[in-house]
Design brief:
195 residues, 68% helix
């Protein structure tokens, strides 16, 4: 069972595919940062997930928000931004700092912060004035509810080590789910650039 986090990390890292922008001027290292996030999350494990089986929970990740087919083009970047922002906010809590290695946590928060900065610029570029209105619609609200469920779970479990381990694995799953959205946006950009 100890191989599971390593195997998951390797699988998720290779699932992202080649780096490309998301239809706007994202830095070339954006996908590299996404891979770095997964590696850091994997390294943050302090206990074996097999010790926390009784604490598992289905948080009902809203897959339709990131599978690419249910999200309008203008909302795709907003969805990615919301996922990163909610994760960043969750990791900035004092309970999170007590649960994980602070060096790894700081590195992950730094990587998320860099991605959020790039996506902030991208949101303005892609959505302009309509951005804030679109950000409050369906897919983004579904992600907010999802993360609210995670926060309630942590509180109910009194921020135990196992609860944080379950959440760490859940965040890895959520990040890996964004590969479909990335692929859709990358393919759209390729079509727009072709002669």
């Amino acid at each position: 069972m100890a191989l599971l986090p390593s195997l998951l990390t390797a699988l998720l890292v290779f699932s992202y595919g080649p780096g490309a922008s998301l239809g706007c001027d994202l830095p070339p290292n954006h996908v590299l940062l996404s891979r770095e996030n997964l590696v850091l999350l994997s390294r943050m494990s302090r206990i074996s997930p097999s010790l926390c089986l009784k604490d598992r929970k289905d948080f009902r990740f809203p897959r339709a928000t990131v599978d690419g087919s249910q999200v309008r083009e203008a909302q795709a970047i907003s969805v990615l931004h919301e996922l990163l922002q909610q994760t960043f906010n969750l990791l900035l809590t004092e309970h999170s700092a007590a649960a994980w290695n602070t060096t790894l946590l700081d590195q992950l928060c730094g990587a998320l912060h860099r991605q959020l900065g790039a996506l902030d610029t991208c949101l303005l570029q892609e959505m302009g004035e309509e951005g804030s209105a679109l950000a409050m619609q369906g897919p983004t609200l579904a992600l907010k509810r999802y993360f609210q469920g995670i926060r309630l779970y942590l509180k109910e479990k009194k921020y135990s080590d196992c609860a944080w381990e379950v959440v760490r694995v859940e965040i890895m799953r959520a990040f890996s789910s964004t590969r479909f959205l990335h692929k859709r946006l990358i393919n759209k950009e390729r079509v727009l650039r072709s002669p």
